[in-house]
Amino acid sequence: MLIKIAKPSDLHESDVTPESIYLSRRRFMGGIAGLGAGLALPGNVSANADYSDVPEGNAPAWLEEKISDTQWRAITPSDPEQDALTPFDDASGYNNFFEFGTDKRDPARHADSLETQPWSVVVDGEVNNGGRIALEDLARPSQFEERIYRLRCVEAWSMVIPWLGIPLAEVIKRADPTSKANYVRFETLVDPEQMRGQRSSFSIIDWPYVEGLRLDEAMHPLTLLAMGMYGRELPNQNGAPLRLVVPWKYGFKSIKSIVRISLVEEQPMNTWQQIAPDEYGFYANVNPDVDHPRWSQATERRLPNTLFRPNIIETQLFNGYADEVASLYAGLDLRTHY
Ligand code: MTE
């Protein structure tokens, strides 16, 4: 995996030059033309990611087309040493997806049982233009973008993953929220036939898995609805066919296999907050200064790692995205609102 990454401090929107981006397997020719109106993401000048070792998936034709039409490539804060892409095998083999079991290898073993085609998402609540939307129709009006983001789990491991998807903001705008919409609530599919973890009587989760964001967090340009990674569609274990990616928050906010997006007035109760409110809050912003009651959040184990090379790195406030998102929390006590 060859990738050239500049430091965040080296990068400005004006540095993002048009250059052919080449992803060997997918005819992935896209010009980096900038980062969109109003976007101030640190972008990478040139990056050549080789996904030739990533196995072929089984994407429907419309998704193949969207993927090969990806034109934007924003690489967010990165350190050349630390932030090399996590190998696909680690990103797709070490997962949290409790619908398929609690062991990190369970999702890769069992998520094939999930039928992701066709798929639709209900957009409802405080919107003028809601309804059930086929995934293809949800994706069609938007340009696919590739975003390379850090993913920091609350359990103190982390990865660097190249996602493919569309800004959540675009989907929300099309739904035309009413003036009462203050939060966005997300739900994962419930289907014990397809999701063996939902059949377990030992599960501590009251299905569906639920997550939520404040409306301004949901509208933030970093917030992505991912439909792919590593130049292909999402593997089931990573949340196919549609998952949220909120890179400055702990991984549990990035809800997988979404079937419902609701604009709501009140702050929703999310799954982990419901299970252990002392340990997991609504905000879940990555913060090295606010420890989990049972472990430190000051450092993280960057995958891949081994017993002999533990690869422990320092955790950064907002997972390294403070320049982009800290203003969302001005005046908010991050210790109380963990
Ligand atoms: N979404 C659902 N529906 N169910 C889950 O168990 N786990 C979360 C999040 N999204 C989870 C989920 C947690 S704890 C993390 S860290 C990330 O997914 C892990 O994403 P990954 O397996 O793609 O690395």
UniProtKB/TrEMBL annotation:
Listed Gene3D superfamilies: Oxidoreductase, molybdopterin-binding domain
Principal EC category: oxidoreductase
Binding locations of Mo-molybdopterin: 95, 153, 188, 238, 243, 254-256
Reported modifications of this chain: Predicted to be exported by the Tat system. The position of the signal peptide cleavage has not been experimentally proven.
UniProt cofactor(s): Mo-molybdopterin
Cofactor note: Binds 1 Mo-molybdopterin (Mo-MPT) cofactor per subunit.
Start and end residues of each Oxidoreductase molybdopterin-binding domain: 114-272
Catalytic activity, as annotated: L-methionyl-[protein] + a quinone + H2O = L-methionyl-(R)-S-oxide-[protein] + a quinol; L-methionyl-[protein] + a quinone + H2O = L-methionyl-(S)-S-oxide-[protein] + a quinol
EC number annotated for this UniProt entry: 1.8.5.-
Keyword field: Metal-binding, Molybdenum, Oxidoreductase, Signal
A GO molecular function held by the record: oxidoreductase activity
Similarity-based family: Belongs to the MsrP family.
PANTHER family: PROTEIN-METHIONINE-SULFOXIDE REDUCTASE, PROTEIN-METHIONINE-SULFOXIDE REDUCTASE CATALYTIC SUBUNIT MSRP
Assembly, per entry: Heterodimer of a catalytic subunit (MsrP) and a heme-binding subunit (MsrQ).
Function: Part of the MsrPQ system that repairs oxidized periplasmic proteins containing methionine sulfoxide residues (Met-O), using respiratory chain electrons. Thus protects these proteins from oxidative-stress damage caused by reactive species of oxygen and chlorine generated by the host defense mechanisms. MsrPQ is essential for the maintenance of envelope integrity under bleach stress, rescuing a wide series of structurally unrelated periplasmic proteins from methionine oxidation.
Name used for this protein in its record: Protein-methionine-sulfoxide reductase catalytic subunit MsrP
Gene encoding the protein: msrP
